[in-house]
Design brief:
five-stranded mixed β-sheet, two-stranded antiparallel ribbon, 41% helix, 7 helices, alpha/beta, Glutaredoxin
Length: 181
Amino acid sequence: MNVKKISCSVVWAFMLLSLVVRFVPSAGAAELHTLEFAAPPAVDQRLYLGINADTFKLADVQADIIIVEFFSLYCAMCAKEAPAVAELFSLAKKQSTPQLRIVLLGIGAGNTADEVARFQKQHTVLFPLVPDQKVIAMRSMKMAITPGFIAFKKQPDGSLVSLHTRVGVLGPPHRFLDSAL
């Protein structure tokens, strides 16, 4: 009987945490666009992002809309969400035009480059993933759990404006994309 009560309490605590985190505003966009990341090792992924240096900032990404996924190799929900994120990537690719370029970028919260590469291989992720071993990017966005998704509109000065944020389950990928556009 006590085990059942404890299990219910844990489930309720996670649900409440999810609601609290979901409604935290994305005030850290100003900080996030100044952070430097190691460029993806694959040339095609660098081309996709429009970067040609060994490090980059989100402001360097050549896109109008940048959808960032915060994930972790050790996050079971991230693994479970991988097919939905793959669908989001496919939809974004289809809707991207020269006038409105949309890209996805995964940031491995607490992950090394090797861990990011393992996640990418295990889940056949086709868009670029970069490590953030110290979890600086996710913390700057006031996010406490993975997965997390943020769509940004890049301004002419390179700054980012948050358009839509989702923490936890992505939900229908077309809805997230529609909310970002």
